[in-house]
Amino acid sequence: MTADQPTAAATVADDLVTETLLRCWLRETGARPDADTHTIDIGLPASGLSIRAMVTHRSPSGWHRFTQPELVSPAGTPSPVDAGLLATLLVREITAEQGLPAAHGTEALGRIIDSARRIAAHLDARRTVGHPSAVPPFLAAEQASLTGHPFHPAAASRQGASDEAMAVYSPERAGYFALHWFAAHPSVVSTSGVPAAEGGPAAQLPGGRHPVTRLLAELFGGDASPGATGRYRPIEADPSAPPGTERGGPPDPHLPPGYVPVPAHPWQARELTDGADGPLAQLLADRRLIDLGRSGPWWYPTSSLRTVWRPDSRVMLKLSLGLRITNSRRVLHLGELRLAEMITRLVDAGLGAALTARHPDFHLIGEPDWVAVTRPDRRPPSRASDRLGIPGSAEASGGGDAGDGAVALATAIRTNPFGPTDRAVSMAALVAPRPDRAADSRGRSRAAMLPRLLTRLADRRHEPVRVLAETWFERYLTVLAAPVLDLYLQFGVGVEAHLQNTLVTLDADGWPVAGWYRDSQGYYVAASAASATERLLTGFATNLDVIFDDELVTERIIYYLFVNNVFAAAGALGAAGVANEHRLLGRARDLLSRMDSDARSDRGPAGPPAVRRRLLATLLTSPTLPSKGNLRTCVDGRDELIGPVATQSVYVQIPNPLLEAAP
């Protein structure tokens, strides 16, 4: 490594965050580049200054490219602006606009700067350690999103975690680690189906074993009954980090008879057991909870950081993690866990089969099971730490109901359909800039995975890359966007199909052949479908916040699927110079028009009701569309996993890019 490489990485990270801040500002304020001068001028009345930048690429979807911005003052000559100064100025404008003291934006500013620093660390690590080799395709894609969300100013922020910890726990750093395990007495464990201490015959497997506890025992190291053996073998174990170091532990800690093994993220386990007044202190003191330490094979963090994967496991694990990642602490709530369980049951009750009949290449990944350490009354431990997001205040529990609050020690269990050879790639990985890679064959630096894939395909086939990009985009719409739209139109179910939660399976040439949606906490059942859903699965919505007005469901589908996903794919390809963005948006309009025509012709009892068809009309004709304002949400200080769904984030209206592609 040469002496200038860390500086180079920091410079690249600064450029990326600067570009993101400018994109966010334009999106969230409605400002548009001057059509004649191709410049943006951002007035900053709170500071008496302004920011000016040239627009080198204009995107209908907001994926603009800029020259380095300059600070313009009435008295002086323009001077370059870096990400830290730009963030300071923009955050100050937002707080002043809202009548808040300037200090209100300090935390948001800290997260933005932390994000830039983390991105630089990711790039430095890739330069010094190199790219992981012999990594399964799914994992390689999960490790590829080095820069995070393209419209989030603090996309890589991980407040509360040291650099040393993130070297082990970050997918961007090719991290891997053994799980930390606790043994929990059944009186303080709640699980999917029924609490572990209350399992009736209907909830048991032969031998009186609850299915979830059996799975947990297998994951821990074999059946939990006396004398049982068996454990997964570590894969690609790093000889520099043998069991017993920070990554692993002894292979076979003792599980007391009758206790339930509960996995935890090692970072979370350390936070929970550090000190005598932690939220689990009483349970540990009276031995209803026993700390078993780290053990077992390596698990690999996916792009969400808290979900871990193994190629030889039939499940993934989503772990409670009290880190504030972007805007939110990723601590699981009992309501989220129950929702995931019931959604999986709804899919299994017939929703999945009905959707598959219409879209055989699209799949909903379920999270059928979960485990949580609670008090004997099934409530989360109440001695809370705000830093961990554990209830003890109305804010931490999302409205004061501790029985549905955050759980410091909890795991959602997700079905794992991806083995060591599956080429399932998240849309986030496909569009994220890759400044760690050398320039592509056309000399483009920082090119994302998808533009690189299409460029290589064009070189092999001797075909125009823009033609191939349109074909790829059409297939992506077919296997991913159309099924998500149909899920709402036909069945009244919406999902948060954003870049990170959606994946496409690629064939050997890189064409999309299947679509996937993951994250069972991101479901909405529309009020128009409440009765049909109840008929399909009796008691589905009991004690769950899952039924929402169609208007809200429509808003979320438009944002997550189109603004966040479809427009991102089109914008990224256009910004990379491998496609005409207007033509890609035209293909999206064509899909919507076909679906709208089909919906209008199918007005019988089985067709979509008018309230759902408005989704298509809004996308095709509305001058503006709803979009989450990530910069404003960041400055506002909201944790987006807390509080009523309708107000968890700040939403704004943006110009509808599809109108630019209208005939």
From TrEMBL:
Q: Name one GO molecular function term.
A: acid-amino acid ligase activity
Domain Aerobactin siderophore biosynthesis IucA/IucC-like C-terminal: where? 471-635
Which ranges form a coiled coil? none
Entry-linked Pfam families? FhuF (PF06276), IucA_IucC (PF04183)
- Give the record's GO biological process terms: siderophore biosynthetic process
Q: Superkingdom of the source?
A: Bacteria
Q: Where is the Aerobactin siderophore biosynthesis IucA/IucC N-terminal domain?
A: 138-432
Query: Which InterPro entries does the entry mention?
Result: Aerobactin_biosyn_IucA/IucC_N (IPR007310), IucA/IucC-like_C (IPR022770), LucA/IucC-like (IPR037455)
So what family is this one in? Belongs to the IucA/IucC family.
Protein name in the entry: Siderophore synthetase
